[in-house]
């Protein structure tokens, strides 16, 4: 009922920039907020940023100033602009939509499949 598709990852140069996109479709009328998470190989899942329905944004302290979350509501798309990339930014990046009321009872959070970002020379 809800589909999230991330794109924009790939092999990136240290110090470079990239934009990730997350396109939402389906029963997305009541999205309250959307988030980016990332998970490196062998690492724990890490919250990156949130953008709320009213446009307010929050970021992980370690990423403030380098990453920016934005959205285009007309395109049902959320973005993550990443700058000054570092090898430690290498991870699978996931988008998450929090929907309330949910389209399926008790299922409030919907995840995309993720997009791999690799920062390396």
Characterise this structure.
This protein has 121 residues and is an all-beta fold. Helix content is 0%, strand content 55%. It contains no helices and eleven strands. The strands form two sheets. Strands 2, 4, 5, 6, 9, 10 and 11 form a seven-stranded mixed β-sheet that branches. Strand 4 and strand 5 form a beta hairpin. It is globular. The model has no long low-confidence stretch (mean pLDDT 96).
Give short descriptive properties of this protein.
121 residues, mainly beta, 7-stranded mixed β-sheet, 4-stranded antiparallel β-sheet, 55% strand
**Helix percent band:** under 10%
For the largest beta-sheet, the strand count, sense and barrel status come to: 7 strands, mixed
The helix/strand class is mainly beta
Number of DSSP E strands: 11
Cα radius of gyration in angstroms: 14 Å
Helix and strand pattern:
EEEEEEEEEEE
Number of helices: 0
Rough outline: globular
The N- to C-terminal Cα distance equals 40 Å
Note the beta-strand portion: over 45%
Would you tell me the overall average pLDDT?
96
- Poorly predicted runs are none
